[in-house]
Amino acid sequence: MDKLLEGYSRFRRDAWPHQRELYEQLADGQTPRLLVIACSDSRADPGQIFDVSPGELFVVRNVAALVPPYEQGEGLHGTSAAIEFAVQALGVKTILVMGHARCGGVRAAMDRSRWGTKSGAASQNLHFVNQWIDVLVPAVMALNTDDNEPCERAGVELSLANLMSFPFVAEKVEQGLLNLEGARFDIATGGLHLFNHARGWVRATPEPAA
Amino acid sequence: MDKLLEGYSRFRRDAWPHQRELYEQLADGQTPRLLVIACSDSRADPGQIFDVSPGELFVVRNVAALVPPYEQGEGLHGTSAAIEFAVQALGVKTILVMGHARCGGVRAAMDRSRWGTKSGAASQNLHFVNQWIDVLVPAVMALNTDDNEPCERAGVELSLANLMSFPFVAEKVEQGLLNLEGARFDIATGGLHLFNHARGWVRATPEPAA
Amino acid sequence: MDKLLEGYSRFRRDAWPHQRELYEQLADGQTPRLLVIACSDSRADPGQIFDVSPGELFVVRNVAALVPPYEQGEGLHGTSAAIEFAVQALGVKTILVMGHARCGGVRAAMDRSRWGTKSGAASQNLHFVNQWIDVLVPAVMALNTDDNEPCERAGVELSLANLMSFPFVAEKVEQGLLNLEGARFDIATGGLHLFNHARGWVRATPEPAA
Amino acid sequence: MDKLLEGYSRFRRDAWPHQRELYEQLADGQTPRLLVIACSDSRADPGQIFDVSPGELFVVRNVAALVPPYEQGEGLHGTSAAIEFAVQALGVKTILVMGHARCGGVRAAMDRSRWGTKSGAASQNLHFVNQWIDVLVPAVMALNTDDNEPCERAGVELSLANLMSFPFVAEKVEQGLLNLEGARFDIATGGLHLFNHARGWVRATPEPAA
């Protein structure tokens, strides 16, 4: 906690003087154009990777950057609530689902897609994680590979497809009012790959020499 | 999206050269000591406010920085999954719940806590948001005020109390292995207030001259 | 209905005289050794394809021969109930999941795995079918092919994996008391392919000249 | 499993040569006129009892040949999905619900309808079966008898009434486009009783000398 407060102190000393006016204006209300759904992982912070200013990104972070399928049942749907708020109340123009390399959540889905491991010892005390990550298991199982990368990509594609199962998302996409994009950040190299349905996966450019 | 890619370009040009080694090390695994549960709001990014380096914070962001009560039912519990992963798999030492001023989620709960407003026009198309934010309604209703600040504080306190309803959290807190903290960031002034159960609310220090 | 009664008449005239004693014995109780989970499709009747006698097969038939994942929530779980009854009360030794070529259910999952089709006109009046078949969508989407066969195989493999998510199934499989098998019947050729986790997919033998 | 493969071998040797052309035609698509909802019981196979050819019957088999009430909630509704597919996509003209004598599912409902028996030892490990079969308990309790037969009949009548709770079924029945029938097969004697709402229960004729 001390480390956090030291960081806050640096923020007040270094960043605040420059951003003071911006924060003062933002106090009247936020008007972000983008919703980013990213992983909770400490190594893949969308604010840092996209060097954003306060007020630019509405951000959801959960395990594996997952969008669950649309489901109107009882219960609390935190990710769906944030998507609904961003699309319906804030009117964001783009939703970016950003996965990343070495994702522990995708790895867990890969582990759980192996025969008989769902009842394995490793998963005994991760009840919530397992329910959550099992959304990815059928996709990962169908890929049948030990390579993380295609599974991480499939996770991003599945989340984008699940976004399209929300009627208020599909409607706006069809009207050209909302844009769905995917990305995968490679922690070791800093590289970024982008995905959308029309174009498939491509390497992000401009890509300065690393 | 172009704006995001420009930001990524800046990140690669400015930050990456300094952080390259750190990211390369982090590719082997993350060992964050803190879980921060923050709001999706574009104006309250914990990474910026605490000036953190990659690998330091495991971050959940949802509407209103909410921790729902422990509930083992069916369905997907994204926030609970992230808490479980951070505490049980990563072994974080501190959980910080950070609310903020001008929180639209808390405001929505205040609106919905007024007599008869649950069926109001404003909430017609926000099914998921309403289910989610109703967790706050009893607290907000009890405060019976039009002032956001006490409601935003109550939200942080309620989330901390809900954290204690998770058996694996309560156990570690009681053993002194896990520390629960709250905070509220004031967008307009950049100020930060801190809360924990022993000490109540205090202004964060060091607080350099703004 | 008349056609059915004519069939019943043939059954009484032709089959009953031979099977009378067997049916009389079976009236005391059934002791089937096999549970077959097959598709409701009119062209893939396991009783005919395996030329079984009364009393041999406990049979579940549903759309696409699907086993949903284990889920202890509220609500009626017809397939799970039949699996539980067969394994726990009847003590079957083998569970066979049999898919088939030209499966309309798998085809529907393939259609629904295409971008944006979840809200398409074709699926407007098939609420229950869509919820049911969406179990297959992530697997089918990951395969990303227009060829039915790999999707039909993936459906069988997913159902077998879902069977392993039932604790009482996994336990008996691990103790060697229960055997999980898959199959895919090719309507046009009458061919049969078999699957299990140890051996993968093989063509059924003996396979007499067609 | 060996026994199944021997049966498949007989099917290929004996039945296939005669049905080959039929199966080849059916590969283009199924057009069954009937949906049969039957019990999973190994002794009551509708394909055998009605001596049907491939392509004639779309078949659902579950514990006790049960149709649950119409319920649009979340979750997977396998039987409802199959009914919807048969009625809405295939356009079947008749739905037959076929119960049978000595039905273990109905017996379980009878056991559970006795005062205090819901917590009985026998039902400890049958979580899914109990939830499923409890649909029958109110009817069985009302009959208050130890005789299986009226309970088995009541089960068929209840499933037919539940079918009428599906809007797309009721509408077609009212338009004369869909016909609902019931039956009960007597395992020990091979006899068949028929039910519909207009006529009540009658013995099936023609009934050749047994």
UniProtKB/TrEMBL annotation, chains A, B, C, D:
It is an enzyme of class 4 (lyase). It catalyses: hydrogencarbonate + H(+) = CO2 + H2O. SMART domains: Pro_CA. Its EC number is 4.2.1.1. Belongs to the beta-class carbonic anhydrase family. CDD domains: beta_CA_cladeB. InterPro entries: Beta_CA_cladeB, Carbonic_anhydrase, Carbonic_anhydrase_CS, Carbonic_anhydrase_sf. Binds 1 zinc ion per subunit. Its cofactor is Zn(2+). This is Carbonic anhydrase. It comes from the Bacteria. Zn(2+) binds at C39, D41, H100, C103.
